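In response to the reviewer comment on reproducibility (Comment 2.3), we provide here a single inverse folding case reported in full, input and output, so that an independent group could reproduce the run without further information from us. The structure tokens appear first.
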């Protein structure tokens, strides 16, 4: 296990498509290593990226989609075990942890999905949120 390092903890709230950072705090902690920073051809799911001012990723973590608008609920006995339905709660809170590096500019929350009827075209990547990092916080 590696030693604690400077990191940023962003506590965010999402209401519909609007995502805001409530807290941007510098902390010391051990973070998981970055997921590969190369192209994500054919990948589906969600991830966060710490990016520099030019939009280049400096750190990437594949995560559960923090803005998912659906949830799984148990089905009737004898049928599929779960069904996806629209989420009832429209307001969600979540935290993002990234390294605190000098040239970091913002955190991007991304998702890649295959649009219905477009499996041959492959996944489409959406930037769900662009969260600027604040200069002075602790």
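Designed residues, in position order:
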């Amino acid at each position: 296990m590696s030693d604690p390092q400077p990191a940023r903890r962003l506590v965010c709230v999402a209401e519909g498509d609007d995502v805001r950072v409530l807290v941007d705090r510098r902390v010391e902690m051990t973070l998981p290593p970055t997921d590969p920073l190369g192209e994500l051809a054919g990948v589906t799911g969600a991830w966060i990226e710490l990016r520099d001012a030019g939009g280049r990723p400096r750190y990437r973590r594949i995560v559960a989609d923090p803005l998912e608008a659906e949830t799984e609920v148990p089905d009737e006995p004898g049928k599929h075990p779960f069904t996806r339905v629209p989420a009832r709660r429209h307001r969600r809170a979540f935290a993002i942890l990234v390294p605190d590096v000098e040239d970091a500019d913002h955190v991007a929350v991304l998702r890649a999905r295959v649009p219905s009827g477009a499996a041959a075209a492959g996944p489409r990547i959406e930037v769900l949120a662009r969260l600027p990092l604040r200069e002075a916080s602790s």
